[in-house]
Write a structure and sequence with these properties.
This protein has about 280 residues and is α/β, with parallel strands linked by helices. The protein has 2 domains: about 5-55, no CATH class; about 60-245, 3-Layer(aba) Sandwich (Rossmann fold). It has 11 helices and 8 strands. The strands form 2 sheets. A 6-stranded parallel beta sheet has the order 3-2-1-6-7-8, with helices on both faces. The relative contact order is 0.14. The structure holds ligand PTJ. Ligand PTJ binds near residues 41, 47, 87, 111 and 191. Ligand PTJ binds near residues 48, 85 and 210.
């Protein structure tokens, strides 16, 4: 895959119990080395990893419901836009290109830590992943959205500015709030259900971007032939406040269950049990 890290044999053995997580971490580091990921993107990834532990590193039932509502919303939108930042370009460029094709959503590069060099590096990742049209590349064409002081306020007049729906993976809260106040419907992907982004969005998918974009693609494919009424019914049934509550309960139940066990890695638990028996 474009930009994916090549990990030296032996440095990260494939039988390492945390192989998948470490491999993803290396993709982020590679993205940083390629000027795609911002320095703060490394920190943001660490926060995501921590929250992923709390959801058991799997897509929970409430997240699946949010994915379904997001898929239906994308299909109903007249002018959907997928906002691309450094972290998502490093992790799921190809999948975002596939999603944009399936939903006719436009890809727009929009960065918190904006530099021209990073915009070009991200554009190259997206082109390498098969993207044909990318917005947000020309600073002279950009227009500002109100109520936002960060550099993310500069958006493309053919993209986020006129969008009715914006998918914002791994977003900062200020912009989600500004997009909402500017009348946009917002779908967020954020492992932290407590974040301002998660709280402000219309639909929050509390799941790892690595797992949920392929599931979102599957869901869009399966809903594609459905009637507008059916899609509207799915969206109308979804309630983000309730869904976030369910997600927080998933985390609470997961941690409560582990709290009863203390040591929950089976091999570690049995070694401690044997040591106890030996006196
Ligand atoms: O590329 P830029 O310049 O636009 O900057 C991107 C970052 C991510 C650095 C910027 O948007 C930022 O600072 O974001 P925050 O405020 O740190 O929020 C990122 C959120 O994404 C946090 O709540 C993390 O828990 C969450 N997150 C991190 N990794 C993942 C994730 N959520 C889903 N999947 C992940 N893999």
């Amino acid at each position: 895959m474009t930009g994916k890290a090549k990990i030296e044999n032996g440095f990260l053995p494939e039988d390492h119990p945390r192989y998948v997580s470490l491999k993803i971490r290396h993709d982020i580091i590679k993205g940083f080395e390629d000027n795609v990921v911002a320095k703060a993107g490394l920190i943001a990834h660490g926060r995501g990893e921590a929250f992923d532990y709390f959801v058991g590193e799997q897509t929970s039932q409430p997240a699946k419901e949010a994915i379904r509502a997001a898929a239906a919303s994308l299909l109903l939108a007249n002018h959907p836009v997928i906002s691309v930042n450094g972290n998502v370009a490093a992790l799921v460029a190809r999948e975002l290109v596939d999603l944009s094709r399936l939903t006719n959503a436009v890809l727009e590069v929009n960065l918190f830590y904006h530099t021209e060099a990073r915009v070009i590096a991200i554009k190259n990742y997206l082109i390498g992943a098969g993207a044909k049209e990318i917005l947000g590349l020309n600073p002279d064409d950009q227009i500002s959205i109100p109520e936002l002081s960060s550099l993310r306020r500069h958006v493309d007049p053919k993209g986020i500015y006129i969008a009715d729906l914006v998918l914002v993976p791994l977003e900062d809260g200020d912009r989600t709030e500004a997009l909402k106040k500017f009348g946009k419907k917002v779908i967020a992907i954020d492992l932290n259900p407590l974040s301002r982004t998660a709280q402000w969005a219309d639909i929050t998918i509390v799941d790892n971007i690595i797992r949920c974009i392929p599931l979102l693609i599957q869901e869009v494919s399966s809903l594609k032939g459905k009637s507008i009424e059916k899609l509207k019914e799915i969206v109308n049934k979804f309630n983000n406040k309730e869904n976030l509550g369910k997600m927080i309960k998933v985390i609470a139940d997961f941690l409560n269950n582990l709290a009863k066990k203390g040591i929950f890695i089976p091999e570690a638990a049995s070694i401690f049990a044997e040591m106890k028996e030996d006196g």
